[in-house]
Amino acid sequence: MNIGNLRELLERQQIAIYFSAVAISSVIAMVVPGTAALEGVINPALAFMLFVTFLQVPLAELGQAFKQVRFMGALLVANFIIIPMIVLALVHFFLEDQMLRLGVMLVLLAPCIDYVVTFAHLGRADARLLLASTPVLLIVQMLLLPVYLGLALGEDAARFVEVGPFVHAFVWLIAVPLVLAGVTQLLAGRSDIWKKISEVLGLTPVPATALVLFIVILAVVPQLGPAIDSVLLVLPLYVAYAVLAPVCGWWVARQAELNASASRSVAFSSATRNSLVVLPLALAIPGAIPVLPAIIVAQTLVELLSELVYVRIIAKWGK
Fold this sequence. Notes:
Blueprint: H1 3-12, H2 14-31, H3 42-55, H4 62-67, H5 69-94, H6 98-108, H7 116-122, H8 127-153, H9 155-160, H10 163-188, H11 192-201, H12 205-220, H13 228-255, H14 260-271, H15 275-283, H16 291-313
């Protein structure tokens, strides 16, 4: 089996791989004492996962995304105007605890830049358009997240999001992996050796994501006592979001007169969130553990189940 076929196999089976990682790590965490000590391994694992994830994003094609004016306009309106309105309404009316509001907003306000492309492809969306737009989505969400948090949390935003740890997490766990991915892509375009290295690294996003889930569950489950009630409070919001978001994305795309496959791409992007990319930012917040990791991982699990539905239902929209 060549590298391309193996990568395709991993991508097709990624939901099963992720759930297996979660199930196995949950059992281990409940029967093996001391797994909470793995908390210190989360950031290195995240850094590697984000590096190989960014490596799959066509950073050199950033300019190409802006040529698709109507698609990019619909994508940005859906993700950064319509979706924030939905999220802010959900947290305002259904959550009183500011820490819970913060966690839900962190995960639901950040559109996915990685496996959404695979799911969009499976759901008969235009994955090529979505792939070209991923650098724009990453940049815009990092610029707007502090704005949205400030609007929703007011003075509490400054209390929760201390500038030092937040900047440290952003630099070392997002900016540095992003730059390294860009350099690797540049070298791969000029050297056969680096091209081969890049191809091999292309096999690792799914295993790396599974590893992060595995480590996070091992570290968080032993501390879940006070977080269980929090998870139960946010689960209905995640389910509501999973239903509303793709419909809103589809509506925005149709208002922009996009074709069916491009509209499906906007629907998938609106529904799929950047949970593991924002996790390091959440972990940098004082007092984050165990509540924020727990509710972020909970959203990931709801989303993975939702994707199984999306690839069947959204694929039929616009026929």
